[in-house]
Design a protein that fits this description.
single chain, mainly alpha
Length: 73
C-alpha cells in the first residue's frame, strides 16, 4: 500500500510517521478520530491539514495494525 501523505524521518518526531511537511504524527490524528472528533474539527485544530491527510492517517493506522496479533482475555 502506498501512503504518500505519511512520511517518516529519524530527525522529525523521533522517526514516528507524520503527515507530510508537518510535525503532526499519524498517531495524533488517530487518537483524535478515536476520541470522536470529526475531520472538520481536526482541521480546525490543525489548519495545515487537508481532509485527505486525515483519511490517509486512518488508512495507514488500519494497515499497520492489521500486521499485528494481540491476545485478548
Amino acid at each position: 500500500m502506498d501512503f504518500p501523505r505519511i512520511t517518516s524521518h529519524p530527525d522529525i518526531c523521533l522517526g514516528q510517521p507524520t503527515i507530510r511537511g508537518t510535525r503532526i504524527t499519524a498517531s495524533t490524528i488517530l487518537k483524535l478520530l478515536a476520541s470522536g472528533n470529526s475531520h472538520a474539527k481536526i482541521c480546525e485544530y490543525y489548519p495545515e491539514l487537508e481532509d485527505d491527510d486525515i483519511s490517509q492517517a486512518a488508512e495507514y493506522g488500519a494497515w499497520v495494525i492489521s500486521d499485528r496479533s494481540i491476545a485478548l482475555p
